[in-house]
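Contributing new records

If you add data, match the layout below exactly. Sequence lines come first and carry their own label; structure lines follow with theirs. Keep one chain per record. Anything else will be rejected by the validation script.
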Amino acid sequence: MSASLLHTVLEIFSGMLVGFTLGLIGGGGSILAVPLMVYLVGVTNPHVALGTSALAVAVNALVGLAQHARAHTVKWRCAAIYASCGIVGAFLGATAGKAVDGKHLLLCFAILMIGVAIIMIRGRRNEGCPGASCNRNNAGKVAGFGLGTGLLSGFFGIGGGFLIVPGLIASTGMPILNAVGTSLVAVSAFGFSTALSYMISGYIDWQLAALFIFGGAIGSVLGTQVARRMARSKGTLTLFFAAVIFCVAGYMIWQSLR
């Protein structure tokens, strides 16, 4: 197998992993996309990896969203409030993120991931309320979480799903499967907002993005099907969510400190 063909296969395979994770847990797309682009595919500029991953994750999130919508696991009103507030934060965060050294961004990103994983594990036995929705009593809280998540999403150049899922659960009390499906609206919105900012600065590798999107579309369909099965077992999906974050964060910290 030639070097160029092998490189293409690695890019598509990486995209499949990203798409599968998005469909499965609604987040983790950029958690995987950024290190895969930097450490496996070989993207040398962290900002290019961040910008390209934001675009690929945004498109793949739409594929996963379509699957969850057909399964009726999306809370559309919550998604609209969360995403609209988060877009504003994503633009502000992306502007600040580009001014910070790329290696420092990756290390801070990994530390943040560990904190979120710990929070998710602690609340794994909380199954949530299937009838949870956004109303006048919690709309402000949902909007606040959306704005905060958007800021972090833009700053780290991520789709933000691994922050949105716990944010939706904390602000509404919905079950994790509903949070996963609903989060994909915001993941896509945040990703496109962040990608636009990076595109203006010339930090998008279009060929790499196309291959990631192709592989991700396949992975998203598979991931959504597995998520519905895992959600039937109490806490399993939440534990898997946290385990993915721990593993990737540990690897990123190891690479950053080498």
